[in-house]
Amino acid sequence: MKRDFELIRKLLLDIEGEKPDLRSYTEEQILYHKALLLERGLAEGPKPHYSSRVFSEIPDRVIIHKLTWEGHNFIDSIRDEGRWQRAKDWIREAGKILTLEFWGLPLTLDKSNRTFGSLNL
Q: Does residue 88 share a domain with residue 106?
């Protein structure tokens, strides 16, 4: 399954208490991406449960207790829809690959909303 940063963003917002619309995603997509949140250290919870009968990259069950410090920092940097859209547009136009390390940059927009961390938008 391909990693979907839009779904990751929505799941983090959901864990934090906002209620984004997740209806366009399948249960398998949600479970897979919740497991990625745990794997990357953005959320805390028990290890995802995988069926012992069938090999699959999709877990049967994922329980998330809370966001980690890093999870809160990540969602704080992309909470604003306008900032999120500008970052995605910049990445797409610049031919960059979106990674979580990218989001580790200090994410501040100047008054002209053209500077994203140390990057110009």
A: yes
In terms of domains, do 23 and 43 share one? Answer: yes
- For residue 44, give its domain range: 5-75
20 and 52 in a single domain? The answer is yes
pLDDT tens-place string over residues 27-80: 999 999 999 999 999 999 999 988 866 677 888 899 999 999 999 988 988 888
For the entire predicted model, the pTM comes to 0.74
Q: Looking at the DSSP assignment, which residues form a beta bridge with residue 43? A: 67
Handedness of CA 12, 14, 18, 24 (dihedral sign): positive
Which distant-in-sequence residues (6+ apart) come within 8 Å of 14 by Cβ?
20, 22
